[in-house]
Design goal:
The complex is a heterodimer.
Chain A (H helix, E strand, L loop, with lengths): L1 E10 L2 E10 L4 E5 L6 H9 L6 E6 L2 E2 L10 E4 L11 H11 L4 H14 L15 H13 L5 E5 L7 H16 L3 E6 L2 H7 L2 E6 L2 E6 L1 H6 L4 H6 L5 E3 L1 E5 L2 E5 L5 E3 L10 E4 L5 E3 L8 E14 L2 E7 L3 E6 L1 H6 L7 E7 L3 E4 L3
Parallel strand pairs in A: 3-8, 3-9, 6-7, 7-8
Antiparallel strand pairs in A: 1-2, 1-4, 4-5, 9-10, 11-15, 12-13, 13-14, 15-21, 16-20, 17-18, 17-20, 18-19
Helix pairs in contact in A: 2-3, 2-4, 3-4
Chain B lengths: L1 H31 L2 H9 L1 H34 L5 H13 L2 H12 L4 H8 L8 H26 L2 H9 L4 H12 L1 H16 L3 H6 L6 H12 L1 H33 L8
Helix pairs in contact in B: 2-13, 3-7, 3-10, 4-7, 5-7, 7-10, 8-9, 10-13, 12-13
The chains are: A alpha+beta, B mainly alpha.
């Protein structure tokens, strides 16, 4: 349905380069990237607010690359909502219909229906000046959806909402998508991506560096940047050696990893998936388990319990339950073993 | 604390001196104008006509020129083009020119030998010594105030709002009239008031174009040069009071607009 082919766009010293993207009908596609990665620029190119230097944009197999903004069947909700401050909520929602010169009765019916769907009927006559972030977001969504866009573009829609409002809006967006609305949602937040996306793309320095299903992308990150997004913190630059018939990875501080069953990549950056790494007070004898000795240097509270930092020459970061800390009597400077199965190791492109 | 305090005192004293410099001559003029003389001036038909002429010609010039000047200001705020800085310089030129020189330049343009004068004479209109000529002289020296204020007003409207409106299906014209213009309204009104006020007070350029019919600044000058200070004073006081009344009225209008249209949340971009 939406197809971007080799999109290039230079803006000052920033370049979107060779962007190729396909989003199918009814898909919820999340474009994940840090601020300054080019995700908003890409949305603006799709919406027609900017034009690419080269490349083509197709919507329903029609070339819309040079089509005017107002002729595209694309609706965009901006990060700051872009609510018209001199109009009421009603005036804002009715704006696209008035632009199309629809009759007042029809406008009234559609505005009320849209307001009802967004649960903002009670604020229709209000000025937009004193609305909360959540209300402004819903007004912006109602105003965009009333023009029935084929494609809805959302620029960081959840970034300035508190947790409860975020959950409400996520539910709303999921329902919209279930009803058939194709959505491209850009965000810097990994949690938004995993909770909403059917497919996710990671954009970095103006390039989409990996895309696929949420599961694929975050289980098999193709490089350090994507791995970081998945919350992986244990990275090690290693040299890969054959030793006694075994494949091993050795860091510059001589930390040695058993790599049975691991596919080495061209650049040898080794990462260990978070949920597979544990810490305890015993060496594991299992040949399939990497067991690395080190000293506990720090124990701090984390989202999941405690985060233990172990210095084994290189630093390991391990999330454990508070009860495990008691069980193994973990304190700073205690000698411990960091354990993880060899198949939890992934070797990725280090660049 | 004490250093700040001394500094504040110095600033206040300097500010008071500037205020005094502006207010003292005006206050002196008001004080030295006797009630009887003032009442007589109010009844003077020549003064009436002159003040009324000044007001309506300046207002008409501002209104007519704003039709082109406001979209021009939008263009300057929103579009980049190769000679933009040069164009901005041209706009400010009338402010720095000696106004009599501006009058001479304009006279060459609107006299019967000039391009505009010739064109107007086809329709039987002689721009020299005519309110339309006065309006042109007033506009020539005052239109930069409107353009600059309106340009700043348009520039302060978040471009994102205009883009959002385009995305919602509005044409560029509709976006201008429903988004840009209402949101820049306060600055446009301020520019309008400044242009109107500046046009009203113009003497140098107007006196070259039209000694008659006599606008108030020319009448005041004429009374001063023919009869002296005492005769010029009451007319000056009357003109100042009427002009103030108009300006305060327009300012009130613009401040009401401000309350209605400016939303700080909308400035996030």
């Amino acid at each position: 349905m939406l197809r971007l082919i080799n999109i290039n766009r230079r803006l000052g010293n920033f370049t979107l380069s060779e962007v190729n993207l396909e989003v199918a009908d009814g898909e919820y596609y999340v474009l994940l990237g840090r601020s300054g990665s080019g995700k908003t620029q890409l949305l603006e190119l799709i919406a027609g607010l900017e034009h690419p230097d080269s490349g083509k944009i197709f919507l329903d197999n029609i070339d819309i690359t040079q089509q005017k903004i107002q002729d595209r069947k694309v609706g965009i909700v901006f990060q700051d909502y872009a609510i018209f401050p001199h109009m009421t909520v009603y005036g804002n929602i009715a704006y696209p219909l008035r632009a199309r010169k629809e009759d007042n009765k029809n406008i009234d019916e559609q505005v009320k229906r849209a307001a009802e769907a967004m649960n903002i009927t009670h604020i229709l006559t209000r000025s937009t000046e004193k609305l909360s972030g959540g209300e402004l977001q819903r007004v912006a969504l109602a105003r965009t959806l009333i023009k029935s866009p084929r494609l809805l573009l959302l620029d960081e829609p959840l970034s300035s909402l508190d947790t409860s409002l975020k959950d409400d809006l996520k539910r709303l967006l999921r329902n919209l998508n279930k009803a058939g609305q194709t959505i491209i949602h850009v965000t810097h937040d990994y949690c938004d991506a995993i909770s909403l996306a059917k497919r996710v793309g990671v954009i970095h320095n103006g390039k989409i560096i990996q895309e696929g299903s949420v599961e694929d992308v975050f289980s098999n990150p193709s490089n350090r940047f994507v791995a970081r997004y998945a919350g992986i913190r244990n990275f090690f630059k290693v040299n890969i050696l054959h030793e006694n018939g075994f494949l091993i990875g050795v860091t510059e501080h001589d930390v040695r990893f058993k790599l049975n069953g691991v596919n080495p990549a061209s650049d040898n950056l080794l990462l260990i998936k978070n949920d597979t790494i544990t810490v305890n007070d015993k060496l594991s004898e299992d040949m399939k388990i990497n067991s690395i000795k080190g000293l506990v240097t720090e124990i701090i509270p984390s989202q999941y319990g405690l985060e233990v930092t172990v210095d084994a020459g290189d630093l390991f970061y391990v999330n454990i339950l508070a009860s495990d800390a008691i069980k193994y009597k973990l304190v700073e400077h205690k000698e411990v073993w960091v354990n993880f199965p060899s198949d939890a190791i992934v070797i990725i492109n280090g660049n | 604390m004490s250093r700040t305090s001394i500094f504040t005192w110095i600033v206040m004293i300097l500010s008071s001196l500037v205020l005094l410099f502006i207010l003292a001559p005006l206050a002196g003029m008001f004080i030295h104008t006797g009630g009887a003389e003032f009442l007589e001036t109010i009844k003077d038909k020549e003064v009436h006509q002159s003040v009324w002429l000044t007001l309506w010609v300046s207002f008409a010039a501002t209104l007519i020129f704003s039709i082109a000047a406001v979209p021009f200001a939008w263009l300057l705020a929103r579009k980049d083009f190769p000679v933009k800085n040069f164009v901005q310089g041209i706009i400010d030129l009338p402010i720095v020119l000696p106004h009599t020189a501006a009058g001479i330049a304009l006279l060459g343009f609107i006299s019967r030998d000039g391009f505009l004068g010739k064109t107007a004479s086809i329709f039987g209109l002689n721009l020299v010594n005519h309110p339309s000529g006065i309006a042109l002289a007033m506009a020539f020296v005052s239109v930069p105030f409107l353009i600059n204020a309106a340009r700043d007003g348009f520039a302060a409207v978040p471009e994102r709002l205009e883009k959002a409106a385009l995305n919602l299906g509005a044409s560029q014209t509709k976006v201008f009239f429903t988004i840009s213009l209402p949101l820049a309204w306060r600055s446009i009104i301020t520019g309008f008031v400044m242009m109107f006020a500046r046009g009203m007070s113009e003497f140098g350029a107007v006196v070259i174009i039209a000694y008659h019919p006599m606008i108030a600044p020319v009448l005041i000058y004429e009374r001063f040069s023919s009869y002296g200070l005492n005769y010029a004073r009451p007319a000056s006081v009357f003109f100042i009071l009427v002009a103030l009344l108009f300006l305060v009225g327009l300012r009130l209008l613009s401040s009401k607009r401000k309350e209605k249209y400016v939303n700080p949340d909308a400035q996030i971009d």
